[in-house]
Amino acid sequence: MNAMDFLKIAAGVYMAKTGDAIDPVLSLVKNEPKLENINENFIDEPLPFDGVYTEEINNKTVVCIPKDNSERFYGPGLRFQKIATNFAALHMRCDHYGNSDNGRTHVPTPFYVSDKGYGIFIDTPEFVSFYMGGTVRTDAKNPPVPQNRGRGEWSADTPGDFVEASFEKDALVYVIVGKSMLEVVSKFNLLCGGGPLVPKWGFGFWHRTHIQFGEEDVKNEIKLFKEKNFDLDVIGLEPGWHSNSYPCSYEWDEERFPDPKRFADDLLKEDIRVNLWENLFVSEKASIYEDMKPYSGSHMVWNGLVPDFTLPEARKIYAEQHKKTHIDIGISGYKIDECDGYDNWLFPDHAKFPSGRNAAAVRNTLGILSQKAIYETYKEENRRTYGLVRASAAGSQMMPFCIYNDCYSFEQYLTGLASSSFCGALWVPEVRDANTAEEWVRRFQMCVFSPMLMLNAWANGVKPWQFEEVEDIIRDTIKFRKSLLPYIYNAFYLYRTKGIPPFRALCLDYDATASQEMTSLDHTDNPYETLSFSDTIDQYMAGSEIMVCPVRPDQKTRKVMLPKGDWYDYYTGEYVGNDETIEIDCPLDKIPLFVKDGAMIPTVDDDNNLIVRCYGDRGFGFVYDDDGETFNCENGEYALFSMAFNHENGVLNCNYLSEYDGYNPKYKEVHFYDKKDF
Ligand code: GAL
Fold first, then answer.
1. 248, 242 in Cβ contact below 8 A?
2. Is the dihedral of CA 205, 481, 372, 111 positive or negative?
3. Residue 514: pLDDT above 90?
4. Mutate to test the pocket of ligand 1, among 246, 336, 402, 458 (most ligand atoms within 8 A of CB)
5. Most buried one in 100, 235, 298, 418, CB count within 10 A?
6. Distance between Cα 396 and ligand 1 center (Å)
7. Which amino acid residue places its CA nearest to atom 5 of ligand 1?
């Protein structure tokens, strides 16, 4: 094994290559790494080990990263069952998650982080296999303690000296070091370009209509929303808007949408945006079919061409058609579906592509490169977009797209929220259905503290008011989300400039790393007595001040672990505890939320006043604002206020200071509230 030769590229960020046959995803995606932001926000750290090693075995490049037995690992990739990955063997490839955290996932980004304060990122578009510390070499320096199953305690999980990774060709390997896991993840996010610029309307309420809907159906639906007094910000059109879908024509169905521009204009007059569903498989009926043919692979999917988006020519054909037919008439964005795979209908691993790249490389980058093509087309128009996609990769950080899938487990959706913060993705636990009114409410509530609040009625045409008995709660839940816009906007500002994920696993901020337990023998379910890890996923951070404690549909009470520090109830402002576990009642209309001592939470009321909620005796905060629609903030058109408060003789004193005034916020008035005003 050869020790790799690392070069420092930013504070605590080191890079080396395994050989010359590299084709980094970050170079394909061409996001500008924010190395300056890393240097401004974080201090330098030395490499945490003597060496990372590489060798070639059986035509594969192998990378060995030293580890010790007390470390916990998180990632690689988006996961849905457990966030800790010690001892897992993960074969990362872009795929639809199929109920097993085996590496086949929507975001297979080859990055993991250790609670010792470093992360490893292997930048290659190829499939990467990770063996997360359970492989033992015959020449191991610290071999596992010998065991004898017939004579006592035994576990199948034997710790080795390394995490081992293997892949075809070569890769850039990064070691990212920080004081905490949050610092490591933030540096990784900045290396990949930092968080996206999301339009303000994107944080409102999204409703995806039935697959067969045309213009009139959509307009009637909007009328119903109005009558019922439900806020609506984005309408999503599902496959039926295309003249042909599966494969896709990307052209309007003229019968359903005789005048798409008028349709988009009419909705915009009501402040409602239109988002279009598509997949990337090009129909013979598509106007771009002939042009795309030379840039497509050897196999079809659903009878459609598979464009090789690693080629700029293919992206250009796709983007130009989308610009002319949708973007220029006012469409606000896309839901790019099915680019994640499902082996039984995707192209095989031996498919050939005109770029000469392996099918693996095309598959792993289809999602991220389609996002990039769309994003750049909007950016050229100085318009922001926000949408959905089912596959992503390194560089997803900068893309204003959320990941979703077809699974529908409450528990797995929660795990997805925690896990997404380790791989630079935004995960949406969309609402589609419920068995009970209670479940309906709890699902909406989980969505409030996620990157997108969306009801996806594509198959069953459900409306938010489908359970009459909780109609008011759902209406208020949507309003509550909208009142949090300034706070969510702040969180995304921090994602963009400091790399801090807006919604994240509790262990990124607090001591809540997974605990490891020996399990007991069960000759049917657990014959190998494998180790089990308990993750905290039912508490997570939304922004830097609020800890969200979602309630499962059947829970009437729940336990809440309050990390060190004083915590306050979001709604009442009352002190609830410090460094203790409490039991709380869970009334249906409330999402249990706990706020850090000294927090100043900016919210907006129905009259467009900025209401800053102050918690505890003294503290500080900030408000970031810009026009919410364009990229002008990148040229200085933004506002940044810092704020502070304290209580003297029970009176709330507040002040705010403009740190930067390139933009004039449109709020009517600013009010500071404390618990007596809540
Ligand atoms: C699925 C997708 C659904 C819906 C459907 C339409 O793949 O996950 O949300 O869009 O396609 O055919």
1. yes
2. negative
3. no
4. 458
5. 418
6. 21
7. 458
In terms of DSSP H, where are the helices of 177-300? Answer: 181-191, 215-227, 260-269, 289-292
Contact 151, 140 (CB under 8 A): no
Strand 610-614 to 670-673 pairing = parallel
Is 277 close to ligand 1, i.e. is its CB under 6 Å away? yes
Report how far ligand 1's centroid is from the alpha carbon of 248 (Å).
13
Residue 521 has pLDDT above 90, yes or no: no
Both tokens of residue 307? 């464009």
Q: Does the pLDDT value for residue 515 go beyond 90?
A: no
Give tens-digit pLDDT for 44-91. Answer: 999 999 999 999 999 999 999 999 999 999 999 999 999 999 999 999
Query: Percent of the chain, pLDDT > 90?
Result: 94
pLDDT at residue 505, as a whole number? 98
- SS3 of 201, please? helix
Atom of ligand 1 nearest to the CA of 337: 7
* Sequence-distant (≥ 6) Cβ neighbours of residue 386 within 8 angstroms: 198, 199, 201, 202, 332, 333, 400, 401, 402, 452
Going by the DSSP 8-state scheme, the letter that residue 473 receives in this structure is H
Give the pTM: 0.98
Is the model's pLDDT at 522 over the cut of 90? no
Q: Which domains are seen in the chain, by residue range? A: 2-191 (2.60.40.1760), 200-292+313-346+367-498 (3.20.20.80), 505-517+531-596 (2.60.40.1180), 600-673 (2.60.40.1180)
Distance CA 262, CA 215 (A): 10
Partners of 603 in the β-ladder: 611
Q: Are strands 600-604 and 610-614 parallel, antiparallel or unpaired?
A: antiparallel
Question: Is the per-residue pLDDT at 356 higher than 90?
Answer: yes
Q: Kindly state the greatest CA–CA separation across the chain.
A: 78
Task: State yes or no: cis peptide before 108, omega within 30 of 0.
Answer: no
Q: Please answer whether residues 395 and 29 qualify as being in contact, where contact means their C-beta atoms are separated by less than 8 angstroms.
A: yes
Q: How far is the CA of 388 from the centre of ligand 1 (A)?
A: 11
* Mean of the per-residue pLDDT values of the chain: 97
Looking from the CA of residue 245, the nearest atom of ligand 1 is 12
Beta carbons of 377 and 499 less than 8 angstroms apart: no
- Judged against a pLDDT cut of 90, whether residue 434 lies above it is answered with yes
- Categorize the per-residue pLDDT at 524 as very low, low, confident or very high, splitting at 50, 70 and 90: confident
Please give the pLDDT value at position 649: 84
pLDDT of 213 strictly over 90: yes
CB of 337 within 6 A of ligand 1: the answer is: yes
Q: With 90 as the cut, is the pLDDT of residue 343 above it?
A: no
Is any atom of ligand 1 closer than 6 Å to the C-beta of 529?
no
CA of 337 to the centre of ligand 1 (A): 7
Q: For position 486, what pLDDT does the model report? A: 98
Identify whether the C-beta of residue 36 lies closer than 8 Å to the C-beta of residue 19: no
User: Cβ neighbours of residue 432 under 8 Å, at least 6 residues apart?
Assistant: 408, 455, 456, 457, 459, 460, 462
Q: Which residues pair with 104 in a beta bridge?
A: 93
Please, which residues have CB within 8 angstroms of residue 563's CB and are 6 or more apart in sequence? 506, 509, 510, 511, 512, 547, 579
| Res 114 pLDDT > 90 | yes
